[in-house]
Amino acid sequence: MKSKEIVAMILAGGKGTRLGALTQKLAKPAVPFGGKYRIIDFPLSNCANSQIYTVGVLTQYESIFLNSYIGIGANWGLDRIKGGVTILPPRETANGGDWYKGTADAIYQNMDFIESYDAEYVLVLSGDHIYKMDYSLMLDFHKENKADATIGVIEVTLDEASRFGIMTLSPNGFITEFEEKPKNPRSNLASMGIYIFNWSILKNFLMEDSMDSKSAHDFGKNIIPKMLKEKKKMLGYNFNGYWKDVGTVESLWEANMDMLREGDNLNIYDNSWKVYSDNSDLPPQYISNTAVIKNSIINQGAEVYGHVINSVIFSGAYIGENTRIVDSVIMPNSIIQEGCYIEKSIVDGDMIIEKDTSIGSSEENIKLVSAL
Fold first, then answer.
1. Which of 265, 276, 295, 333 could form a disulfide with 316 if both were Cys (CB 3.0 to 4.6 A apart)?
2. Percent helix, strand, coil in the chain (nearest 5)?
3. In this predicted model, what pLDDT tens digit does every residue of 121-132 receive, in sequence order?
4. Pairing of the two strands 312-313 and 297-298
5. Do residues 336 and 354 touch, judged by C-beta distance below 8 A?
6. Are 81 and 159 within 8 A, CB to CB?
7. Is 182 strand, coil or helix?
8. Cα(144)–Cα(148) distance, integer angstroms
9. pLDDT digits over 305-329, tens only?
10. Strands 234-238 and 175-180
């Protein structure tokens, strides 16, 4: 195959157990978001907008829908004769085969894919974060500083820090310490799960790690700390835009609500950096003369007869008369019948909420309503 300077590898096999019923039958990257998107749309769109056109998507858990959704990458302009999108599930080879045992093992098992493009650099991404980022600028930073590895870094609160890989940077940007999900974090600089590696260096670390029976075969737990221990040149790339790890029901709800706030950096209406998705052949939205809508997103195919306030309504949803939806997310094709009150909730797709039902309140935690 024609050589490529950089190949992107999107890790999209996560179970997302903290999302509860939303991931009972869907991989986390396939969960609906923002009225018309799936979470995986964001890293795929970032690759396309960054002009990185060779992308491997590593799927595993509940992969049937996700594989079908991505297809050959046409929705993101990644349907290319040379390169494009390739779905990479676990597979059996002449040397055997196994499920991906960790993030590093997933890349290790697909070394032949990367090698086939003779890539100089590898961009490793999580498939389950919400953000817009130009990876080409990060690659320029990596090359200009002659780094062995560069990690995307974002500031988080100290309360959140124990959920992430946390690092300390020297004044000139070198990573001096890295700890995966520390109980007592000493910094608030979190790894975004975005890595650029020199492939010739990463390959050796992956091969060594594959032979370590005690390893978790994970970038944060094993590869990054070992590279740091062996004095590789590792840099942090500071990112100041919007980024959200939607790993819980609460964070998924918050990210949807963020789209409704003025001044938010996640601007889905920016034509210079589009977020691409599956544009299904649906009819226009219908807003009846009984409807009242304030500060909300109403997607195509939705019918609204009631009140929708500060909420996100997905395609094909139905909101009945005298129903009031407040601070909530109604996922695709759900039917909310007449006289309902729903507040601070996520209603899963294809649900039928019977008339005069009341769900959630401003005083309670986020409610997830699902048939599963």
1. 333
2. 25, 30, 50
3. 999 999 999 999
4. parallel
5. no
6. no
7. coil
8. 11
9. 999 999 999 999 999 999 999 999 9
10. unpaired
Question: What's the rounded Cα separation, in Å, for the pair 89 and 51?
Answer: 24
Instruction: Report the sign of the C-alpha dihedral through residues 116, 121, 123, 124, in that order.
Output: positive
- How far CA 253 is from CA of 248, 296, 348, in Å, comes to 9, 14, 12
Q: Model confidence over 214-245: pLDDT tens digits?
A: 999 999 999 999 999 999 999 999 999 999 99
- The alpha-helical segments, DSSP class H, found in the chain are 41-49, 63-70, 103-108, 111-115, 135-144, 199-210, 224-229, 249-258
Q: Provide the 3-class DSSP secondary structure of residue 92.
A: coil
* Contacts with 184 (C-beta within 8 Å, 6 or more apart), sequence order: 162
Q: Return the closest-CA partner of residue 266 out of 302, 239, 238, 300.
A: 239
3-state secondary structure of 54: strand
Counting Cα atoms < 13 Å in the Cβ hemisphere of 287 gives: 12
Task: Determine how many CB atoms are found less than 10 A away from the CB of residue 211.
Answer: 7
Nearest to residue 274, comparing CAs of 68, 84, 72, 37? 37
Paired strand residues for 194 = 125
3-state secondary structure of 220: helix
Q: State phi, psi for 329 to the nearest 5 degrees.
A: -125, 120
Burial of residue 85, with CB atoms counted within 10 A of its CB: 0-12 exposed, 13-18 middle, 19 or more buried: buried
- Please give the DSSP secondary-structure letter assigned to residue 263: T
